[in-house]
Task: structure prediction
Amino acid sequence: LLALAGGHLNAASLELGKVSAQSNWVVHLDFEGLLKTEVGKFLLAEIKKDPTAQRQLAGIKAAFGVDVEGLGNLTAFGRGEHDKGIAIPSGGFNAKQLEGFVALNENLKSSNYNGKTIYAEDNKALAIVNENTVVAGSGNDFVKHGLDVLAGKQPSMKANDLLNELAK
Result:
């Protein structure tokens, strides 16, 4: 289990309710907390000095609605299957813009699952949960499972002393 919270005391902690009980690995990245630290501020300032990086960040924001400076956190987990897992990023993107961009891809197939649209191609899929949260995974079944965990329809990880300390 790896929990990386950016080293900030007020950082967004790992929410075990977002993590499937079936998981045997978890990664949590708190971008918001990282960007508040001296290291995070330094890294962002260095990126902003590079004109190519500035153009790339502007392009990502324009095309996908993703604002690096507004990123919240990312929780990813899986069962140890090679190249398979679920990622749940929160914050820093415009969900409507992202959905509009995704919908333009003719190779993506869309389906409805419990009121959410899942966009999938081969072994990649994503669903926009709300304005701040996306579930992405290694295909439809993984995204469905992630949505079910978030909705409380599938069990999530239970807290214990070690996980509570890591989540902090």
DSSP finds six helices and eight strands in the chain. Confidence is low (pLDDT under 50) at residues 1-11. Strands lie at 2-4, 25-30, 73-78, 86-90, 109-113, 116-121, 124-130, 133-137. Helices lie at 31-36, 38-49, 51-64, 95-103, 140-150, 161-167.
